[in-house]
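Hi R.,

Here's the chain you asked about this morning:
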Amino acid sequence: MFQTLVICLFILSIVAFIKSVSDFIKTWKVEAPLHWRQWEEPEFIDLYRQMFTRLWPVVFGKACEDANSELLVKKRNDIRFTLIVVSLLFVAGTAFNGFSFDISPRWVS
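And the predicted structure, written out as C-alpha cells:
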C-alpha cells in the first residue's frame, strides 16, 4: 500500500517537474528576452534535455541572476525544488526493492 503511494507521488512529481520547466521557459521568454536569446533561444525540450549539460548555468548556476528578474529566479527555484522531490521519491521507491532496479519486461525470464 505504502509502496503504491510512493510510486503515485513519484509520477505526480514528474508531472510537476515538467510543468515547472514549461513555466520557466514561458517566464524566461517574457521577463528576460535578451538573456533568453543569449542562450540561443532554447525551447522546452531543449532546456529539458540540456539541463545537465550546456544549460546547467541557467538552471543550477547564477545565470538567472544576471537577467535581473525576481520572477525568473523564483521559477528557476521551482525547477530545483521539484527536481529534488523527484530524486527523493525515486530513492524512496527503489528502497522498497532493496535498491535494486530491474527494467526488463516481466514476461522475459
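Residues 2-31 form the longest helix (30 residues).

Let me know if you need anything else.
M.
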